[in-house]
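This part of the workshop introduces the protein records we will be handling. A record pairs a protein's sequence with a compact description of its fold. Comparing a sequence with its tokens is the quickest way to learn the format. To make this concrete, we reproduce a full record directly below:
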Amino acid sequence: EAMDPQQRLMMTYAWRAIEDAGIAPSSLSGRAVAVFVGTDRSGYGSLLAASGRPIEGYSATGIVSSVGPNRLSFLLNLRGPSEPVETACSSSLVALRKGVQEIQSGRCEMALVGGVNTIVTPDAHISFSKAGMLAEDGRCKTFSAHANGYARGEGVAMLLLQPLAAAERDGDVIHGV
């Protein structure tokens, strides 16, 4: 109950990405696998505070977005860098790039990358609306002369990256190159 749904979603979809690649999650234990996840506060902490739930030893780790990627690394005993990425709308893309760079540099053999965003309270939405940041029609028009703000969304995506030769050698499922 004290864990932000974003952390649960990230861990669930990371596990699915590993299994979807045909890899046993336990086989990654102790290996140089990086974790980069686009994430930020969801507002879940304010819901917990309003519930009157007492503050426990793990209350903060459940709601601090920087803990999510590290929780995943700890769960799977991964030995690569493990970082949250928060660059607004580009967070997932930056996480992907960081994962590719770690693999290309040879520092890691694989990388779990992706992003997660949930909107559990209206607070940020109200503030962004008052600041005039949201598109009035709820549609993003990136690079268009008709752009008038952005639209908020929820979702989660996680990918397991590795060099093509390694995936082919190991007989892993490959969905894209």
In short: The longest strand covers residues 110-117. DSSP finds seven helices and four strands in the chain.
